[in-house]
Each structure stands twice: as structure tokens, then as C-alpha cells.
Design brief:
six-stranded mixed barrel; mainly beta; single chain; 10% helix; binds the ligand CC(C)(C)OC(=O)N[C@@H]1CNC[C@H](C(=O)N(Cc2cccc(Cl)c2Cl)C2CC2)C1
């Protein structure tokens, strides 16, 4: 009998409220990796033992060594991902991947080159994409699809809890097969995904304080567990930042910590429900040697049409709203996180 009745939990680590990752293993005997469970992508990649020693981002992370795994199957097809923030290149391999104790035979990429930016800042080793198959590069069947085809999950859904306090343990939870009542209160509100095969919904507007400032005619919101912040069209975000008196410097937007308490809430109108973030949700307060720094967790990002313009709701949104990703009904559910 399955002790978790058809659900599979994976505890997550919260690094500075900006990176949430959990442990998986690849190979026999198990080689351990920390991965971001990223609804904005659909491939699994980890650094390779064959990564060039000059790649800083590689040798500071765990690397997969196929020669040490007796369940490794050779593939060798080339692979590359061009992120907005950086590039990874490598080749495909196949091996047993274990997520939350569940083994699947999985085609994944061994990264032989990882751009220093941004991966030298990554506390995680790799990325496990939780997106739909049609977002998967090289048409590789994603991990969650492999798990669904085993028909062991109670429901064909997965849920994500991100804690808001880096000292809290665990720093989050990925639950395959259901939702975890320990991490939300109240009911779920559901939204149909906008188009088949992406974790995105139609947003009806963004209100700052009591004023509808953006997306009044409707726009797309991507629910992306792999992004740290909320991003919106650069012009909209810069207007929003001006409204709250934030200054842009090389690392992003900051506000004077004395003004934080008076900052307006920012509300996202999704599927007939209002999802508000207060300054508690969108300001990261860092006490540094030379005084306190208050980081605003919004970034401008212009995604070209036809995909864009879009808003990306990342970790700081998910930390406030526990999220269920429902592959059976192609919908996303939000409930108030504890
Ligand atoms: C088009 C396609 C390539 C599928 O787009 C994506 O894959 N889009 C991904 C969507 N989700 C966020 C991904 C991302 O930005 N990073 C980098 C990152 C994020 C937070 C913090 C750090 Cl340190 C880093 Cl390095 C991956 C780790 C998840 C890109």
C-alpha cells in the first residue's frame, strides 16, 4: 500500500526567497542533484562530469558521471537552451531519475557548458522542467509525463508551496498527485490555462493601490515556479516603480526601507479573483553591513510578440498563493498559502 495514498512529496530548500530547489537522484548508484522544479520549461538538465574545467558554473556544482552508473544508456544528441539570462549546451543521456522516491527512466541533458551568468549565482545544480511536453526541447517526454504514464498518482496534478521565510524548514514542497492542506487555507480558485501546453492564464488587469494601472484590456500571465520575481513589460514596471518611488540600480529596483510600510498593494486580476501582494510580499528586506537594503521583487522584461507582452508571476507570487498545476483539466488553482 502506498503510504502517501497516490501523492509524492519532495521538500524544497528556500535560498534567500529567490531560489527554491529540491533533491533528485540520477543513475545507479544514485548521484544526487539539487534542481529547480520549473513550470516555465520542460527539460531536465544537470551539469556533466565532462563539463570543461574552465566553466566556473560547472565545477562549483554537482556533476553527473555516466561512467559511474550501470543504468546509463548512451544517446549523445546535441542539446542547447537559450535562456533570456544565459545559455547551456550539452548532449542527451538516458538514466534512472528518482523524484520523491519515484523512479522513471528519463532522457535528460548533461550540460558541458554553462554560461557563468547567471549560473554562478545558482545554489541549485540543474533544472527539472515541469512544463507541458510541447515546450520540451528536442521533443523529449518530460519527467512529470513519464510519472503520469505510470498511473500511480491519485490525480494528474502537482502543487507547489514556497515558504516566505528563509529560516523556515522545509523551505517549500513540491507535491506530485495532489494538494497539501498543511500549506494552504480556504478554497482553491481555478483558471483555465490560456492555450494548450503552457502554464499561462489570461489576466484582466493589474491594480496599484486602488487604481487599475496596467493590462486593463487583458494580457497573458505566465505562472513560473522557476523565476524568482514578477516580471512585466519594461514600460509598465518602470511606471510602477516610479509610483512606489523605487530606484533602478545594476542589481534591480530598491526602495528606501523607511517608506516600505506605506507602499501600496499590487493586485493581479486573474479569473474573476483578485490576487493582492502587499509590501510584505514584494519587498525583500536585507540587513546589510552598511545598513538595510529593501529590494523590490519586480523586474522589467520585454518578451517580443507573439508570445509577449506578458507578465511572469514567479516565486514571490507563489509564496503568497499556494498553486496547483492541473494537467488533467488544463487549469491552475490558487489558494491562500499559510
Ligand atoms: C524557452 C525556454 C528555454 C524553455 O525558456 C525557459 O527555459 N525559461 C525558464 C523559465 N523559468 C525560469 C528559468 C530561469 O530563468 N532560470 C535561471 C535562474 C532563475 C532563478 C535564479 C537563478 Cl540563480 C537562475 Cl540561474 C532557470 C533556473 C530556472 C528560465
Amino acid at each position: 500500500a502506498d503510504p502517501n495514498n497516490g501523492t509524492v512529496p519532495t521538500p524544497l530548500t528556500n535560498y534567500l526567497d529567490t531560489q527554491y530547489f529540491g533533491e533528485i537522484s540520477i543513475g545507479s548508484p544514485a548521484q544526487m542533484f539539487n534542481v529547480v522544479f520549473d513550470t516555465g520549461s520542460a527539460n531536465l538538465w544537470v551539469p556533466s562530469q565532462r563539463c570543461s574545467p574552465f566553466s566556473t558554473a560547472c565545477f562549483t556544482h554537482n556533476r553527473y558521471d555516466s561512467s559511474q552508473s550501470h543504468t546509463h544508456v548512451e544517446n549523445g544528441t546535441g542539446f542547447s537552451i537559450y535562456y533570456a539570462s544565459g545559455t547551456i549546451r550539452g548532449f542527451l543521456s538516458e538514466d534512472v531519475v528518482v523524484v520523491g522516491g519515484l523512479p522513471v527512466v528519463q532522457v535528460f541533458a548533461e550540460a558541458t557548458s554553462l554560461s557563468a551568468m547567471p549560473f554562478i549565482f545558482a545554489k541549485f545544480d540543474g533544472v527539472l522542467g515541469m512544463g507541458y511536453p510541447n515546450v520540451a526541447i528536442d521533443g523529449i517526454t518530460p519527467v512529470f509525463d513519464q510519472i503520469m504514464s505510470q498511473h500511480i498518482l491519485k490525480e494528474e496534478v502537482f502543487s507547489i508551496y514556497y515558504s516566505r521565510d528563509p529560516k523556515q524548514s522545509p523551505g517549500g514542497e513540491l507535491l506530485l498527485g495532489g494538494t497539501d492542506p498543511n500549506y494552504y487555507t480556504g478554497n482553491f480558485n481555478y483558471l483555465e490555462t490560456r492555450e494548450m501546453g503552457k502554464w499561462e492564464v489570461t489576466m484582466k488587469g493589474v491594480t496599484v493601490g486602488a487604481e487599475m494601472m496596467f493590462c486593463a484590456e487583458g494580457c497573458t500571465a505566465v505562472i513560473d515556479t522557476g523565476s524568482s520575481y514578477i516580471t512585466g513589460p519594461a514600460s509598465s514596471v518602470s511606471m510602477l516603480m516610479k509610483t512606489i518611488g523605487a530606484q533602478l540600480d545594476e542589481t534591480g529596483y530598491k526602495v528606501n526601507c523607511d517608506t516600505v510600510k506605506m507602499l501600496p498593494s499590487v493586485t493581479f486580476h486573474l479569473g474573476g479573483q483578485d490576487y493582492s501582494l502587499t509590501h510584505e510580499d514584494y519587498i525583500i528586506w536585507q540587513s546589510q553591513f552598511e545598513g538595510d537594503v529593501c529590494i523590490v521583487t519586480f523586474r522589467g522584461l520585454d518578451v517580443p510578440p507573439p508570445t509577449g507582452p506578458i507578465w511572469i508571476l514567479g516565486a514571490n507570487f507563489i509564496a503568497r498563493y499556494y498553486t496547483e498545476f492541473d494537467r488533467r483539466n488544463n487549469r491552475i488553482g490558487f489558494a491562500a498559502a499559510v
